Amino acid sequence: MTVFLQQLLNGLSLGSIYALVALGYTMVYGVLRLINFAHGDVYMLGAFAGYYVSKLVQGRLGAAGGGLVEAAVVLILSMLICALVGMLIERLAYRPVRRASRLTLLIVAIGVSLLIENLAQLFFGADPKFFPQLVPERMFEWGGVLITNQQILILATTVLLMAALTWFIQGTRTGKAMRAVAYNADAARLMGINVNGVISLTFAIGSALAAAGGILVSLNQPSIDPIMGLMTGIKAFVAAVLGGIGSIPGAVLGGLLIGLAETLVAGYGSSTYRDAIAFLILIAVLLLKPSGLLGKGQVEKV
């Protein structure tokens, strides 16, 4: 039982990272019906932004909270940087082809992903870099289950960000505009909503959440490299599909389930298959419930 609880805790910690990245996929799809395959690379850029920002701020803000102040500053600045990157990607790559076919959008998304990965290898180097230990690891034991302060930080930050996103979308005027654009962009435009601005903001928020995921995972797994977003991006996409792409609660649920499944397979089976489980889940969802767990099937008129 103790082993199961330990794996459950590890799975929730990992799944919260997938949930943050999956939120970006589902938000963009909800507004544009576009799968932004460059989103995993924005997650990678968030980790590298945190790496270089931490070099600037580490040791300059004092030791308050055992590095929590520095970690918070690195997190916020990295999220802002990636928000700007997300807006730039939308403006330069997706907006010119927004009215094009689905195939064109897919090709553009894959091209942007490859461009970011290759530029990252050019500017950052292909060798892995080690993320600074902003929050020194401390381990606690509760009923035989080991938990680190970094896992607590990951879970707490994830819950805070998701709560803030839910409040923003459900309780603000801009969030209402975002939901209107997702429901019917043409009708929203007729009602005076700046559709381009809403779409740009959607990319910014999704990219900021992906950056947060990159920072949080780097606290626990400090080795970062230019292709680290490839597999994580795919798993987060599977999480979005599993939960019901376009559904924000579904993205959270899907991310947690993928993290739990991956951890349990590695803990009770073999770590060799931990990556394969995401693809097995994707195949099962597409065969059994293509709309996802919380998604709604759409009827298209012909």
In short:
The chain is mostly helical and 302 residues long.
Explain this structure.
This protein has 302 residues and is mainly alpha-helical. It has a single domain (2-288), classed as ABC transporter involved in vitamin B12 uptake, BtuC. It is built from eleven helices and four strands. The chain has helices at residues 2-32, 39-57, 68-94, 102-124, 149-171, 173-183, 185-190, 195-220, 228-243, 248-268, 276-288; strands at residues 129-130, 139-142, 145-148, 223-224. The protein has a two-stranded antiparallel ribbon. The chain has a two-stranded antiparallel sheet with strand order 2-3. A hairpin with a 2-residue loop joins β2 and β3.
Q: Bin the strand percentage.
A: under 5%
* Uncertain stretches: none
The major beta sheet can be summarized as:
2 strands, antiparallel
What is the count of structural domains?
Answer: 1
Rg, Å, rounded = 19 Å
Q: Give me the CATH architecture, please.
A: Orthogonal Bundle
Q: Structural class, from helix and strand content? A: mainly alpha
Order of helices and strands: HHHHEEEHHHHEHHH
CATH topology: ABC transporter involved in vitamin B12 uptake, BtuC
Shape: globular
* End-to-end distance: 54 Å
The overall strand count is: 4
| Strand neighbour order, sheet with most strands | 1-4
CATH class: Mainly Alpha
Number of helices: 11
Mean pLDDT: 88
In which range does the helix fraction lie? Answer: over 70%
